[in-house]
Amino acid sequence: MSEEDQVDTTAAEGADREGVAARQTALVIVMQVHENDAWASPVADRILSKSPLDQQDRNFAANLAFSTLRWEGTLDWVLANAVSRALEAVEATLLDLLRIATWELLHGNQPVHAVVDSHVEVARVVVGQRATGFVNGVLRNIARRIDDLPWPDEATDMGLGLKYGYPSWVAHAAVKRFGDERAAEVLDAGNRPAPLVLRAVAPREDVLAALAAEGIDAEPGTMARDAIVLADRIQPGRLAVIRDGLAIVQDQASQVIGQTAAEGLPAGSTAIDLCAAPGGKSTHLAQQGLQVTAVDRHAGRLRRAAEMADRLGLEMATVTGDGATVDLPEGVDLVLVDAPCSGLGVVRRRPELRWRRSREDVTSMTVVQQELLQRAVDLVRPGGRVVYSVCTWTSDEADDVVAHAVDGGRVTVADVPQVGTPTRFGVQMAPDRDEGDGMYMAVLERTAEVS
After folding, report:
1. Of 290, 237, 254, 164, whose CA–CA distance to 434 is shortest?
2. Which of 151, 231, 326, 433 could tie 217 with a disulfide, CB 3.0–4.6 Å?
3. How much of the chain is in helix, strand and coil states, percent to nearest 5?
């Protein structure tokens, strides 16, 4: 019998029942994310909204689930060093339970015995008595060896990735983009929960006053003029300012994109958003007085963007189709390309995303990004503006994409706002130094036609 199969018959009997329900709820969240290939936030919101747990336990369960998803690759490495069988041979429910418990052993602040005993009890409730010995043995094995695991040198891609909870290729891309010291800071910042940020559609002072009347602590953001940062994480649907169309949820870095794109353009200027869904940037352009055509290949998501515009009292035309090929008017004043990307800049909000992307995904996405940016140049008038943005920070998806357009000779690089860190062609925002997500932006101007 292997060490992890040895049963401590007193474990389940002596389990500390306090926290078992919250841990079980965290397990349900993680399981549903994996089973349905879903995003954690809506899954957690749905499950916790129906949970009988008090608010403190809800917060504990949510943090446990999100942290587990965030550190999944590192947790699997630890488990692979502690379990004698291949992880693929471990029942999916038990593997998720072990991941959660392993995160607590590595990063939690509970005594080892409380963590082990509570998760053994969760295993008994969810899987059955047959699982308790296995879970107990694995967790006690990890607890004994936690200081002696063969961690790779953090100067290597694998070591850096394991230390901060990222695949090796992401760690390599961070070092390439930011250098050794700052790469660690950017990766670390991606593990901190993001605040809830609103974009005021009504005057910001009025929205702040309305929030205060609800007893909600909030303050103006510093990156974008319409940004409001809430002190506590609250489900957006509970906010009257959201229900009444006075504000929407939008990160400050995203607000900087829309604000910069419309800066200085007179009311009535024509704009196309080539990748518009879910509508945050499109409605921001409309809010600033532009005539916006929102384009997206996903009809359902574009329909929700149109519904958002209606709810906010904004006019916005929509076109369903691939922004790189669908028929669109030429000679517009502004084209925004908020391109599909690896999304590494939003891992604070989507902790599981880092484990769903590969180096090959980045390579394929750069082809799409270049096509969309080329189409934007075709659509904008001479002297008009093209804004390219991605919610990531890899060099391949940022300056390297813009370089193709600049080398074509039809656009020149224009000034960008003094936010984030300047790059060759644009600016990189990142949560280690800025108040928003990790977004890249470049502003280009179409050159005059040569006869």
Report:
1. 254
2. 231
3. 50, 15, 35
- Tell me which residue has tokens 């959201």: 242
Give pLDDT, residue 5.
37
Instruction: Please list, in sequence order, all residues whose beta carbon lies within 8 angstroms of the beta carbon of residue 377, skipping any fewer than 6 positions away.
Output: 335, 386, 405, 408, 410, 411, 444, 446
Region of 261 please: left (phi>0), alpha (psi -120 to 50) or beta. alpha
The structure tokens 């353009």 sit at 265
How far is it, in rounded angstroms, from Cα 94 to Cα 361?
30
- Strand pairing category for 270-273 and 332-338: parallel
Q: How far apart are CA 351 and CA 66, in angstroms?
A: 6
How far apart are the two ends of the chain, measured CA to CA in Å? 83
300-304 contacts, C-beta under 8 A, 24 or more apart: 301/277, 302/276, 302/277, 304/277, 304/278, 304/279
Residue 179, pLDDT above cutoff 60: yes
User: CB–CB of 246/202 below 8 Å?
Assistant: yes
Q: Say whether 1 sits in a helix, a strand or coil.
A: coil
SS3 20: helix
Residue 50 structure tokens: 């129906």
Average the pLDDT over each of 16-30, 129-143, 196-210 and give the range with the smallest value.
Answer: 16-30
Long-range contacts of 132-137 (CB under 8 A, 24+ apart): 132/7, 132/11, 132/12, 133/5, 133/6, 133/7, 133/8, 134/4, 134/5, 134/94, 135/94, 135/97, 135/98, 135/101, 136/7, 136/8, 136/11, 137/2, 137/3, 137/4, 137/5, 137/6, 137/7, 137/8
3-class secondary structure, 140: helix
Q: Please enumerate, as own/partner, the contacts of 216-225 that have beta carbons within 8 Å and a separation of 24 or more.
A: 221/197, 221/252, 221/255, 221/435, 222/252, 222/435, 223/252, 223/253, 223/255, 223/256, 223/419, 223/429, 223/434, 223/435, 223/436, 224/199, 224/252, 224/255, 224/256, 224/259, 225/259
d(CA 176, CA 381): 36
pLDDT of residue 238: 86
Residue 232 has pLDDT above 90, yes or no: no
Please count the other Cβ atoms lying within 10 Å of the Cβ belonging to residue 425. 22
Q: Which residues are catalytic?
A: 391
Tokens standing for residue 432: 């280690």
**CA–CA distance, 341 with 375 (Å, rounded to integer):** 17
Q: What is the pTM of this model?
A: 0.91
**Residue 339 · residue 366 · CB < 8 Å:** no
Q: What is the pLDDT of residues 379-395, one digit of tens each?
A: 999 999 999 999 999 99
| Mean pLDDT, range 20-34, rounded to an integer | 97
Alpha-carbon dihedral angle through residues 329, 334, 338, 340, given to the nearest 10 degrees? 30
